[in-house]
Amino acid sequence: MTSPTVAAPQGRALPALRRLGAWVIAVLVLALVSGPDGSSASPAFGFTHSILRPRVLWFLLIAVAGWALFEYALPLLRARSAGALGRIEGLSERAAPLAANRLVRLAPLAVVALLAIVIPPLLSSYWQNVLVQEVGVYVLLALGLNVVVGLAGLLDLGYIAFFAVGGYLVAYFTGRLPVQPPFVLNPFWILPIAVVAAIITGVLLGAPTLRLRGDYLAIVTLGFGEIVYSVALIKTDVTGGDSGAFNIPHFAIHIGGLHYKWGFNPLPYYWLLLVFIAIVVAVFLRLEHTRTGRAWAAIREDEVAAQATGVPTVRYKLLAFAIGASTSGFAGVLYAANVNFINPASFTLQQSILVLVLVIFGGMGSIWGVIAGAAILMWLPEALRSLVAPSDRFIYYGLLIILMMIFRPEGLIPSRRRALEIRQAEAGVGEADAMGLPKETQV
After folding, report:
1. What's the count of helices (H) and strands (E) in the chain, helices before strands?
2. How far is the C-alpha of 318 from the C-alpha of 308, rounded, in Å?
3. Mean pLDDT of all residues belonging to the chain
4. What are phi and psi of 343, to 5 degrees?
5. Residue ranges of the chain that CATH labels 1.10.3470
6. In terms of C-beta density within 10 A (0-12 exposed, 13-18 middle, 19 or more buried), how is residue 428 classed?
7. How much is the pLDDT for 261?
8. First to last CA, the chain
9. What is the CATH number of domain 125-392?
10. Angle at CA 355, nearest 5°, toward 67 and 219?
11. Residues 110-155: pLDDT tens digits?
């Protein structure tokens, strides 16, 4: 019998070479993007002067250095840090690895949190608007959808409809729609109303449909999203139709001696979003490790087995749907109050698919991965604005996603469970898809 130690290095080397290839392709795309443009007289000028020039050697050097850093240097540094912590006096033999793992996990988060606080005030108002309207709002949307898709394993293609619920509630209660409300509210106080309304909408949609699974559930949620979009477009006497709602007022707080009003300066909205995202992350992290989180994991991995062991699957799926919907409605209020305008074009099927892409790219089930994926993918088109023609911009956007799915299908920062499932599937042990059968049982 062949010893498994002979094949192990090859098994480790192949993913490493794949990651090296991904680095090389990524920097070659970067070299192409940052190079000169072509012209009608010489269509290949941009390619030849970007790739077929000595400058490309610097990009290849960056690729090799980045690959070596993440493949060897950082793992070695983490191992040495763990060893150093193990020698600290007073740490027990079992406590030292735990302290090392905690330090390794918290250090990057502390750096990111510090950058999120320090950098935005130094940016121009344009990039501050990008942080609010593109990055911040879509991070909230991705966090909510991650509960539905990443934790509970439910494919929701109509998720943006709850975003529309929050947006149109702001327009309604501020008197910006053809139908007038019974009383006018400041958008800040519409936040809890939007959360409750989105939860009710999610329950009304989920109660009759969540007994469905897989593609059937996706089709139903797709239909729900299209219904909301069509109603917003057609019912001009209620929603304003294609013209939408204009002049939605900004947030304002008047409590006792505290009086503050948000305006066109995007930075106050950024701080507000940052606080809300921190609260949502803290709640979801806590929720993930409770009985509810474990029930979602069981449903995602094998709903039949979860139901057979006594998990009330419909109840927990409905709860995931309601929590995801509430986050989306919450984000809708923030978005509408910040941009002061909404119309049906803001709530199309493409937006639902975009949020789903953010979750998959970042890492389904991973809260930190979803945040990183949403931030990168929503920032990238704006970063390419000055470098790439508008007609070509999303070519590079799509190329990045394709490369990610080929070389790192578990996502940018995957959850441990998801990464393990994919590694086992690549090794021929079971399937990455929870509903799939192990290979030895398939006919």
Report:
1. 19, 2
2. 18
3. 79
4. -150, 170
5. 125-392
6. exposed
7. 83
8. 27
9. 1.10.3470
10. 125
11. 777 888 888 888 888 889 999 998 899 999 999 999 999 988 888 8
